[in-house]
Every structure is written in C-alpha cells, then in structure tokens.
Amino acid sequence: PVSVQATGIGRPSLSIYVHELLTVFGVRTIVRVGSCGSLDDCVGLRSLVIAEAAAMDFEVENADAWRRPDPALYETAAMLAGSGVRSRAYPMVSSDVFYHGDPLGRFAGARARGALACDMETASIYGMAARFGARALSICTVVDSLVTGEAIDRSERQAVFGPMAELALETLVTDRD
Predict the structure, then answer these.
(1) SS in 3 state form for 32-67?
(2) Is the CB of residue 167 less than 8 Å from the CB of residue 81?
(3) Residue 84, by phi and psi: left (phi above 0), alpha (psi -120 to 50) or beta?
(4) How far is CA 119 from the centre of its chain?
(5) Mean pLDDT in order along the chain per 10 residues (177 residues)
(6) 144 flagged as catalytic
(7) Phi/psi of residue 167, each to 5°?
(8) Which residues contact 164 (CB under 8 A, 6 or more apart)?
(9) How are beta strands 48-56 and 87-94 bridged, if at all?
(10) Contact indicator for 121, 56 with CB cutoff of 8 Å
(11) Which of 57, 76, 122, 129 is deepest in the core (most CB within 10 A)?
(12) Dihedrals φ, ψ of 119, to 5°?
C-alpha cells in the first residue's frame, strides 16, 4: 500500500507532515516526488534528479550535514532509471528561500561541493528519516534552470511529472519484492 500525501511547500510545512507520518502513523518509508531547479547546464529541464545526498544551504560547509537516502531505495531507483528515463543521481541543496536575487551566488558553496540541483525539502526528509530510523528517497523533476533562466511552462508541469511518479512507484514495488 502507498499513501500519497501533499506536504505543502518548504521545510516547515513538510516537517510537520513527515514527523506525524513517522511518529503517529508508523510510516517507515518516505519517497519525495516534486520539483527542483537546475544549478548546472548539464542538468536540463524535464530531467529527473535522484538525490544521492542533500544539505541545507546554510550547512553545506559542514561535511556531517550532508544527509543521505536509504541505500537500498537509492540503488533501486538508480538502477531502474538507468533503463531509459533521462535521469541522473546528484547531490542536492535545499533552501527555505525560493526567490533570491542572486540564486547562483547563493548556491556557490553547494555547487563547489557538487550539488547540481536545488529544492526546498530533500535535506529535511533525509534528516528526519535518519532521526526516526526510517527510510527516505527524493526524486525530483527539473522545472527551471537557475543557470539559463529557462522554465517549464506551468501548463506542462502536471504532464512532465509522470515519469518521476512512475519511477517512485516502480522503486517501491521493486524494493518490496
């Protein structure tokens, strides 16, 4: 069984949902599917990003702050994605600030440490899962590029999220088998 939960946008809203799922409802596996932005030309629009690590933007200097997904979920998703979906595994940086006047400057430290995409939630999910002994994975679709300024039209976003959702569900089914 899979439950789909909308968490709202950003760390504060997501943290409430994830905390209750883990502590009240006994959920042991959390897979985030959502949007992210590209921090490098090699990560194009519509690409899937499987977050191999994540840190909050204010913690990227601290090597211990980089949180990781569940190894088995990550390996399963990476293996399944390798069969044709345009996807890559990258470190991600998460931030509570969505709109910023100098986005590339804001994420320069994270980019120097290999982060090629940014979102608002992945580092929190990975951190909370580790804290509560649960499993977590984050798979995101690139909807905008902070490098080129390109963005997927809002009218296309619902359709472009299909491959990400399919990969998440296939990962869960394969992991369960």
Answers:
(1) EEEEEEECCCCCCCCCEEEEEEEEEHHHCCCHHHCE
(2) yes
(3) left
(4) 7
(5) 80 90 94 94 91 93 90 94 70 86 86 92 96 97 93 87 93 88
(6) yes
(7) -65, -40
(8) 33, 48, 139, 140, 141
(9) parallel
(10) no
(11) 122
(12) -145, -165
Block residue for tokens 């799922």: 21
Q: What residue type is assigned to position 39 of the chain?
A: L
Q: What is the pLDDT of residue 164?
A: 92
Residue with tokens 């949007």: 35
Q: What is the pLDDT of residue 92?
A: 95
- What letter represents residue 35's amino acid? S
| Residue written as token pair 């980019």 | 111
pTM of the model: 0.92
Q: What is the pLDDT of residues 29-64, one digit of tens each?
A: 999 999 999 999 888 999 999 999 999 999 988 888
What is the longest distance spanned by two Cα atoms in the chain? 47
| Pairing verdict, β 117-119 and 135-145 | unpaired
Spot the catalytic one: 41, 64, 70, 144. Answer: 144
CA dihedral sign of residues 94, 97, 99, 100:
negative
Question: How many secondary structure helices (H) and strands (E) does the chain include?
Answer: 7, 5
Judge contact between 77 and 171, C-beta under 8 A: yes
CA distances from 171 to 14, 17, 58, 139, 142 (A): 22, 22, 31, 10, 19
